[in-house]
Amino acid sequence: MENLIDIKGVRHAYDTAAGKLPVLDGLEVSVKEGGFCAVVGPSGCGKSTLTRLIAGLMHPDEGEVWLHGEQVKGPRSTVGMAFQNPVLLEWRTILQNVMLPLEIVPGGLKGKAAVERAESLLALVGLEGFEDKRPSELSGGMRQRASLCRALVHQPDVLILDEPFGALDAFTREDLWQTMHEVKAKEPFTAVLITHDLRESIFLGDQVVVLSGRPARTQYVMEITRDGPPKLDDLYTPEASERLATLRHQIEIAQGRAEEGVSA
Questions:
Q1: Reduced to 3 states, what is the DSSP secondary structure of residue 92?
Q2: pLDDT band at 260 (very low <50, low <70, confident <90, very high)
Q3: Residues 76-96: pLDDT tens digits?
Q4: pLDDT above 70 covers what percent of the chain?
Q5: Integer Cα distance of 196 and 53 in angstroms
Q6: What is the pLDDT of residue 258?
Q7: What pLDDT, on the 0 to 100 scale, is given for residue 264?
Q8: Do 194 and 201 contact (CB within 8 A), yes or no?
Q9: At what angle do helices 94-104 and 111-124 cross, to 10 degrees?
Q10: In angstroms, rounded to a whole number, what is the distance separating the alpha carbons of residues 264 and 259?
Q11: Mean pLDDT across 43-62
Q12: 133: closest CA among 70, 91, 163?
């Protein structure tokens, strides 16, 4: 299977009052078509910068970002994004919020086809019957489900998830992890998830990329294979414990609290 996303030797720095602040240093990341890549690393290491580069919302100082064999040089309509804050518009119903990208993306579905697409996604995430509600009438978890539908309604090739479950309680978060797998089984997208939750990374990802401390480079990559759909019980197996221990040690290395080659 070919790579859909290729990030090659990317370097980037922000201008600050004190001068240039390097955030990415020769970053290399590849994600196969249909893959689910979870990206973890210390706070402030450049994870969100990575998502903006993939979406074409900003350009790297050096290096290249490729999607589908084309270099990213500007915003891409084939990318969907969901964030920690759903940012739903209160004056629109949930159905109208979900349909918003179809009003913006050139060549998107219109009329009855647009409504049917949005309604099918809402049903897929368990929000059937809530189409006419306002965002304030829904719980945090339900709003995040609607945000996910909005990110997917225009059938993007790439779905970027920037800590979308981080503000939710543990039970709601785990419920949404399972929903995410159900959606992934029916929607043909390639996903990049930014998260601080190592359990989330191994439950959702088939690849976990650990970024080093700022300026970030690709420090470690863990490949995850599964036999069938994952279950929450899988997080309590010896194999999962070993994966989590490995990732925790890699994070400690990235934070400068441990040395490479020294067991956790």
A1: coil
A2: low
A3: 888 999 988 888 999 999 999
A4: 97
A5: 19
A6: 66
A7: 46
A8: no
A9: 130
A10: 9
A11: 88
A12: 91
Tell me how far apart the alpha carbons of residues 135 and 155 are, in angstroms, rounded to a whole number.
23
Retrieve residue 106's tokens. 């050139």
Q: Does 110 score more than 50 pLDDT?
A: yes
- Both tokens of 205, joined, read 């990802």
**Residue pointed to by tokens 């965002």:** 135
What is 130-172 written as a DSSP string? -TT--GGGS-HHHHHHHHHHHHHTT--SEEEEESTTTTS-HHH
The bridge status of strand 62-67 relative to strand 70-71 is antiparallel
Q: Tens of pLDDT along 186-238?
A: 988 999 999 999 999 999 999 999 999 889 999 999 999 988 888 999 999 99
Rg, C-alpha atoms of the chain: 19
pTM for the whole thing? 0.91
CB 9 within 8 A of CB 28: yes
* Ramachandran class of 26: left when φ > 0, alpha when ψ lies in -120 to 50, beta otherwise: left
| Residue ranges of domains in the chain, CATH in brackets | 1-75+190-264 (3.40.50.300)
Please report the DSSP string for 53-86 in residue order.
Answer: HHHTSS--SEEEEEETTEE--S--TTEEEEESS-
Nearest to 45 by CA among 203, 191, 253, 245: 253
Amino acid making up residue 236: Y
In angstroms, the CA 55 to CA 52 distance is 5
